[in-house]
Structures are given as C-alpha cells and as structure tokens.
Amino acid sequence: MSGAGSLASALAGLIERRFALHARGTTPAREMVAGLTTFLAAAYLIVVIPSLLASGGMDRAAATTGVIVLIAAGSIAMALYANLPFIVGPGIGGSAILGVTLAQVEHVPWTTGLGIAMLSGVAFVVLTLTGARGMVVRIIPPQIKLGLGASIGLFIALLGLRDAGMVAVDVKRHAFALGDFSQPGPVIALIGLAVAIALQTRRVPGAILAGIVVAALAGVPLGLTSLKGSLAQPASFLPASPLPVMGKVDLAGALTLAALPYMFTFFAAEFFSTLGTTLAIGAKAGLTDEHGNLPGIEKPFLIDSLAATLGPLIGVPGGTALVESAAGVEAGGRTGLTTLTAAGLFLLALLAMPLAMAIPRQATAPALILIGIAMLGTIRTAARSSSETDGITDMFAPMAMMLLTLISNSFGTGIAGGLLVHVLVQLLAGRWREIPPGLFILTLPLGYYFYGAATAH
After folding, report:
1. Which structural domain, as residue segments, surrounds residue 171?
2. What is the pTM of this model?
3. Is residue 448 situated within a structural domain?
4. Which residue in 153, 276, 396, 409 has a CA-CA distance of 20 to 30 Å to 403?
C-alpha cells in the first residue's frame, strides 16, 4: 500500500509540476471532467469533416483516421508545450473549401487542394516565427475579417441544407428550390436538428453529437443508416489505414495565381480562428491579462501553424484551436491536462470508426446547419461596430462578399470580390489614407483572379 501511495504521490507531483494546477485554481479531477466535456462537444467533427472531404473524392475511412490523428497529435502538443485548455484540429470551413468549393465547383483535384492548404500553413509558420502577426492583422480590414466568418457560415449552412435534401438546385431557373420533405433525408435531418437545438439551449455537452446520433438511429428503419462493421468481427473495428490520403500533396499544382484567393482563405481561417479562439476562451478561463492579451500567445500560434502545415501530409486540410474548447473551459478546464484528456479520448475513438462510417450525410447535416448559423453571428458584430461610423461604407464590402460567395458558390470569388469592393468603397468615400499599402498591392493579383472567375462562364 505504501508503494502504491508513493507512486500516486509521485504521479500527482509530476502532474502538478507539468500543468501548474494549483496556480490556476483547479484539480486533476476537474481537469479530466473538462476534458471529457471538450471531447463530447467536438466529437461530431470526426463524422462531419471526413464526410466533407469524401465529397471531394478523398477516401472517407482514411480521412477519418487522419482527422482523429491530427486532433490527438495537435492537442497533445498544445497540452505539453503551451499548457492551455485548447484542443487543436481541422475546421469545418477549410474542409468545405477543399471538399466542396475546390473539388466540386472549381474541379481542382483534392491533392492540389491539400497543397494549397499546406502552403497557407507554411505562411502561418513564417509569420509566427518572425512575429509578423501584427502586420497581417493590420492589413486586413476588421469588417472583412468578420464578413469572412459570416460568408463561410452562410455557405456551410446552405451545404447542410443541401446534404439534408431540404434545399435543391433548380437547374432550369439557376436558382435554389425547396427539397422534397416527404423523403427520408429531410425527415431524419429535422429530427437531428430538433434534438441538437433542444439540448444546446439547455447547455448540454455534446448536443450536436447527440443530434447526429439520434438522426442516424432514425435513419436505420428508413434505410439510410447501415452498420458496415460488426461486433462479431472485431478486426472491422480497427482503425482504417490513412495511406490512401497520406502524403498526397500536390505543391506544384498549388503554385498558381488562381490558387491565391483560396490560399488566403485557408490562411485567414486558420490565423483569425486561432487569434479569436485563444483570446476569447483564454479570457473565459481567466488566463488573459488586464489588456485582454494572452501571455505566451506565441506558443499556441506555433502549435496551430505547425498543425496547419503538417495536417495536409496526413490528408487533413488546416489545423487550428477549436472553438469547441469553450465547453471544457465552461466545465472548469484551465490547463493542458484538460486537452491531454480530450486527446486520449479521441485516440480511443479510433476503435469506433465503423460506427462513424455508418452515419449518412443527412444525419451530419444538422451539425453543418447549426455551425453555419453560429458563424453568421460575426456579421452582427461588424454591423454594430459600423453603426458607430458610416454603416454603408463599412458594411458594403462584407455584405458584397457574402452575396458573391452565395451566388458564385465559391469562397475564392467571394473573398477576392469583397476585398476589391472594400478598396473601391474606401476610395469613393475619400478614405484612401486608411487603406494599408499592402492591401493595395494585394488587389492586383486578386483583381486578375476575380476578372478570370467572372469571365470563365
């Protein structure tokens, strides 16, 4: 007993030295509960993201393994190097860009898409190591940053509606139309959406995951959900090999002018998501200073930039601090022990891959709809800030970006158009001195791309 007690005491001391639990007013038990909460809040990603990537031609099973490995590896690095309660993983926005916009709309091979994502990650690493983040923050207008999130959110929500069969594309009228709600797809999507909303409003951890599970179960009698694995065949529950997507990065194909807007989109999604998530969730955890800054923010930035760079090598675009980390912080998580616990649970999820593979896209649609709607909230912040100055001058560009994204079904076209509109509106308003020189330079390649996209059809 004394030996066991000494071992437990030594382990507790090691954990305390590594994570400084006492200094942050937490305990191992609280951190582990917070880690479980974070896992439940983010587990839906191992279903939704591979589904998006598979729609662009990637092997879904291999992509699922890649997603889990990236989340686990990135989160372990964040836990041990930065000691912060932020899990790291691919975002839905970047996955939608690769699997839908690039692969389906622009007909860009997913291997080239991974190359574009990797180059954006390299740029993120360079800016992090050189300390040039402030330059990027200054060059991109605040309304464009907020409008970017809303544009991606609008596209993701519409993608969810289309996956569910609630919205169809009317080819004759070149417009959207309501889907057939008598079909099984919209029915199970509505069921999952109702469950997720009911649980979210009650602040139940894992609300989105619960909605996906209930929708998938509802799809069994309707013939949409079928379990490929079997408990009688344990080997079928082993992780799928990531080899079909590992190392398939086409960097040469990504080094084109047409890829520039998408490279910027990947970069902006990773860069500003990391900045916003670390500051907002860090403040909620009481880790920021009196000025709202997070001491040692270079550490999470370095982890995220490396995840964004190395993720494509295992077939997963992007890598950023995930906003779902807020669930763990709300449950009391304050250190990397929360993140380490969540990472361990994600590794265990590798054994449940056949269950994830059995879930149809109609059941994952509620997650896309809810996440997309949540991202639309950023435009409200932009509208509130613009009301203090000149609303039409500040809001014209982000609204144009959203409309162009929707009309063109392309993030690249929307962002290129939004930045160009911003510069034009500022010039017309006589605010040319407020436009950073770097943004003027950026308009040249973006203008060429936008012209090419507009005249291609």
Report:
1. 23-377
2. 0.76
3. no
4. 276
Q: How many helices (H) and strands (E) does the chain have?
A: 21, 4
CA-to-CA distance for 222 and 190, rounded, in angstroms?
Answer: 14
Domain count, the chain: 1
SS (HEC) of 171-217: CCCCEEEECCCCCHHHHHHHHHHHHHHHHHHCCCCCHHHHHHHHHHH
* Residue 12 covered by a domain: no
